[in-house]
Amino acid sequence: MECYTSDSCDSDTRDQKTLDLSSQMLESLSLSSELKGIVDEKDCAENYEIILLYNNRIKALPDTLNRFSNLKILDVSNNRLTVLPDIFKHCQLTSLIAKHNQLTNESLPKSFFSNKSSLRELNLSGNQLNFFPEQVLDIASLRYLYLGGNNIVNIPKDIWKLNSLQILSLGGNQIIEVPESVGHLTGLQALVLSDNLIEQLPASIARLNQLRSLLIHKNRLKTLPTQIIKLRCLTELSLRDNPLVVRFVRDMTLQPPSLLELAGRTIKLHEIPIRAGEVPLTLMRYLGAAQCCVNPKCKGLYW
Length: 303
Prior knowledge:
InterPro entries: Leu-rich_rpt, Leu-rich_rpt_typical-subtyp, LRR_dom_sf, LRR_domain-containing, LRR_R13L4/SHOC2-like. Helices cover about 15% and strands about 10% of the residues. The strands form two sheets. The protein has a ten-stranded parallel sheet with strand order 1-2-3-4-5-6-7-8-9-10, with no helix packed on it. Strand 1, helix 1 and strand 2 form a beta-alpha-beta unit.
């Protein structure tokens, strides 16, 4: 499961006119008929900025969509799409969500993403992509890119071209290597690489000084670059199910606290009043040596 998903996250849709045809079991032919009826009404198609077509049975998108010249957000998730045609030349899409379809790399024409300087969000998660779509690298305006749950084996060295990215989600693929050029994505706030075949991270990851979330669980990591401590904004780091963590847990020696320590902690933490003669002298001396953690958020004890 991906921790970062998209539902038009970069758009305030409250004031935008929406055409909602979601969850109506529409197929390609019936969708074409629905859209044609709207297009045939004078200037009606130009009013819509959002079209929701998710949860249907659509295999192909009709050319009629090209008539919605003010279209900004298109959600065609959870359909049966095998191709995304280049029918958006005359609209300024900001968000294209096409997750959970049957799209392959051949489904995306070379010119599909050309001149899409307005596109900020692209979600192609849960499809059948075998490698990172090269066309995507031409969309310098992208802020949110979701390609998780495919069969992608590579992150291109030219990933640096997407220098506006804030979220890059590539979990659930077959990626083996993370290129050094990832370090050029200095605006990145979330990087999802979980459930892949990654054995090491590049030292350049330390350049991601805006990174808040790094999810790299379920990989083959045996070490981490020491430079990772430079990520001052990092608040979430997921490492579980890596050889690095498995070995640490396996080799960890647990030493249960003594009765003396348990008694001392109980008295200190619960502020139980005691007087000389009420407890053994060894416990009194032990309590006198207790120190409180200087971190106000901790409030723990140590000796």
